[in-house]
Design brief:
Two copies of one chain form a homodimer.
Chain A: E1 2-9, H1 13-25, E2 31-34, E3 51-52, H2 59-77, E4 90-94, H3 96-111, E5 116-120, H4 121-127, H5 139-144, E6 151-155, E7 159-160, H6 163-176, E8 180-182, E9 187-194, E10 210-217, E11 222-230, H7 236-240, E12 250-259, H8 265-268, E13 281-283, E14 289-294, E15 299-304, H9 322-336, E16 347-355, E17 363-367, E18 370-374, H10 384-395, E19 400-402, E20 408-410
Parallel strand pairs in A: 1-2, 1-11, 2-8, 4-13, 11-18
Antiparallel strand pairs in A: 3-7, 4-6, 5-6, 9-10, 10-11, 12-15, 12-16, 13-14, 14-15, 17-18, 19-20
């Protein structure tokens, strides 16, 4: 049995960022991060599409992402840690209907001062000659339920980063301060204790005050701590549900297909969207299909944030399915970008979103002495720095966290009990 | 393959009330209710504690329950169907701290015009001589973390009913109008179809518009309908999650222990709380432990709505555990009511709440052509009539439902997307 001030379960982006900020503010505290994998971010952090954006409809998601992106730029630009950042932008391809539906959100973001620009149809085709030009009434497109792209909207403070480098950055900073990380250590359960033990069987009994006193690992070790932080992403319900708590998220499988082919070179090398001269992260009009440039590899990553039809289920090691690309995403891709015709993925991988299906905003709250940081909802990487700071503020009993850049954030806004009510409508 | 206007999955209180009101407003519609059990309400409706109250902190829960209780009274009093109603009241036993915490909620309810009365300590002990009279500082109580009861608050429009008779009432009325009910028919999955089929494998593909077209039973039958209603309580995620939808609830086991003993007769026969001369449904100060009179049996039912420590998990046939009574609830019961000493349950049963762990308010919403009625959160029976009317209004495309008694209710208030934001703090 060992004893710490804080045990953090999970060495993904949330767990490591949280451990780092708690340690930074409490340098004398003994803090340990436990993770079932062999290295940092090997759960779903590493399986992320590795992209970031500050284009969100909700003020909360905007603040979390915007400040985290500023921190990324600071780490790479000022602290000299190469995170593989590229501000290539996000480009939404919008049909007439799609534009109408999102128009209000775009105006809201403009009023917020978010950097973005809109391309009318003709301009867009000039910048992106590979985009198919079909008309309303095109028979095949109509049969597929697809409409022509009428506009593009590009978010500029958006791009890609190397998530592996990001988690290693937080891990290194945490360790530099004296933090411990134990890998290959699966936490099996949270240990619930009564505040006053009576020596009766099955304590805590219903009428006793109970709290999370520590964790038990798969090797049967018990690790006790004054505070337990749970940051295990898609696995959160396996720890919270057995003690009667809800992680307010559902796991949903996500896949990335990597394509590299001379036929795609022209699309990849779109000139006028960013200084790298690459195509932005591009979202197709329907079903959440997207591609993004892997800037240093001259490759395109294709993915999809499908919704209805894709099960909520937890898989320990989700596998990509080639047929999901070739017999599904492919049809829409080729309709809008004929250059994808007959191009096969050279590689693929799968991971899982920890999706908050209610408001698509993450959760940080404390219950029974446990702090939960989760429900990243597919945009956890790009919010990790803000969430780490908020969880650390909660740990210290502060009502407000100070995000990178100095903006304050009310900690309870992303709790359960005093949640600020907003809904994120801008989901990919 | 068969085809209906509406398929309702689940013949519990929600499914039958919904089927009845849809049929009532659409007398020519062909409507079928499917259920895996052999009769109405055999899932968790029958496992309910069979109690009702209009004491809720949230306006929404109050309206749902209050109008449903009025309907119960109407059915028994005017329509002549004996539902086994007894308005014996609910009695909250409050410590100084408990009273302070709920004081604001009680004032709110008084302003709402809810019938209730408060008993000061001395008065309460006169009415309930079996209530132990210990002082602050009592060593055993302090060790257990229990404080003396200082006040009682009784809700008067609260009591018990026979849930079996209630579900049979809705079933009979539905059948009288020509509705069909098929028992022993387990629905295995919801059938998702693209709005325009292309004959490709694995449709609907991500870029196709998809809708729930019907259901498939365990016997492999497909039943198609213009609208599918899912009202399967604790099992809702097994149908919704595979198609990527969330039922916004988690199952939590609940148990009832039945006690009948000469030692309890005096407690049971409390004279001055109601016209039946029985003890009210009584909630102990801590941990959600309660007992209620089974009026016609001279028995007491003991239960507990425990929270932390009780797992969220779905069991197909949850079993009661005697040790949960004897080695857990018993200690608090005996501390406050020594007459329970050495009394053993003569019977017991278990069921499950479908708990909305966020706001403890039920859900009615439509998504992909499926109407979901669920997340009763342990107070589904006492809200079933209102929820049936709201689901029927949603089916008819009405923005407002008319509850029993004439009060209108905005249908979207209990949806996902336009949910009225409230939080129920008055949970048992």
């Amino acid at each position: 049995m060992s004893r710490y001030d804080v045990v953090v379960v999970g060495a993904g982006v949330f767990g490591l960022a949280t451990a780092y900020y708690i340690k930074k503010e409490n340098p004398k505290s003994r803090i340990v991060v436990l993770d079932k994998f062999g290295g940092p971010g090997q759960g779903n952090s590493a399986k992320s599409a590795g992209a970031f954006r500050n284009i969100f409809a909700s003020e909360t998601n905007f603040l979390l992402a915007d400040s985290t992106i500023d921190f990324f730029a600071h780490v790479q630009g000022k602290l000299g840690h190469d995170l593989g950042l590229s501000f290539h932008g996000y480009l939404w391809l919008l049909t007439e209907t799609g534009y109408r539906n999102q128009k209000e959100s775009f105006s809201l973001m403009e009023r917020r001062g978010v950097s973005m620009r809109t391309f009318e149809k003709e301009d867009l085709h000039k910048r992106m000659p590979d985009l198919a030009d079909f008309e309303k009434g095109d028979e095949e497109a109509e049969l597929m339920g697809l409409e022509p792209v009428e506009r593009g909207v590009q978010g500029l403070k958006c791009g890609s980063l190397d998530v592996d480098r990001l988690v290693r950055f937080y891990e290194a900073e945490f360790k530099k301060l004296g933090g411990e990380v134990h890998y290959n250590t699966l936490v099996k359960r949270l240990v619930l204790k009564p505040t006053r033990e009576l020596g009766l069987p099955r304590e805590p009994l219903v009428w006793q005050d109970a709290y999370v006193a520590g964790v038990e690992t798969a090797r049967g070790e018990e690790v006790y701590a004054d505070k337990v932080v749970v940051a295990v992403g898609a696995w959160a319900n396996t720890l919270l549900n057995p003690i009667g708590l809800d992680a307010f998220m559902r796991p949903k499988k996500r896949q990335i297909f990597i394509l590299k082919d001379p036929k795609l070179r022209n699309l990849f090398r779109a000139k006028s969207f960013n200084k790298e001269g690459v195509v932005p992260f591009t979202i197709l009009p329907k079903g959440g299909v997207f591609f993004k440039p892997e800037v240093y590899e001259e490759a395109l990553w294709v993915g999809c944030a499908d919704n209805i039809g894709r099960a909520f289920e937890l898989e320990d090691d989700p596998q990509p399915e080639l047929s999901y690309y070739t017999g599904n995403l492919y049809y829409e891709l080729v309709r809008y970008f004929p250059c994808f015709k007959d191009v096969q993925p050279i590689n693929m991988f799968a991971g899982q979103y920890a999706l908050n299906s209610i408001d698509k905003i993450p959760y940080v709250f404390e219950e029974a002495n446990m702090i939960y940081v989760g429900a990243g909802s597919g945009s956890g990487v790009m919010k990790c720095d803000a969430l780490g700071r908020i969880a650390a503020a909660l740990y210290s009993g502060e009502k407000e966290a100070i995000l990178y850049g100095g903006q304050t954030f009310k900690v309870s806004n992303i709790s359960v009990k005093e949640r600020k009510i907003e809904k994120e409508t801008f989901v990919i």
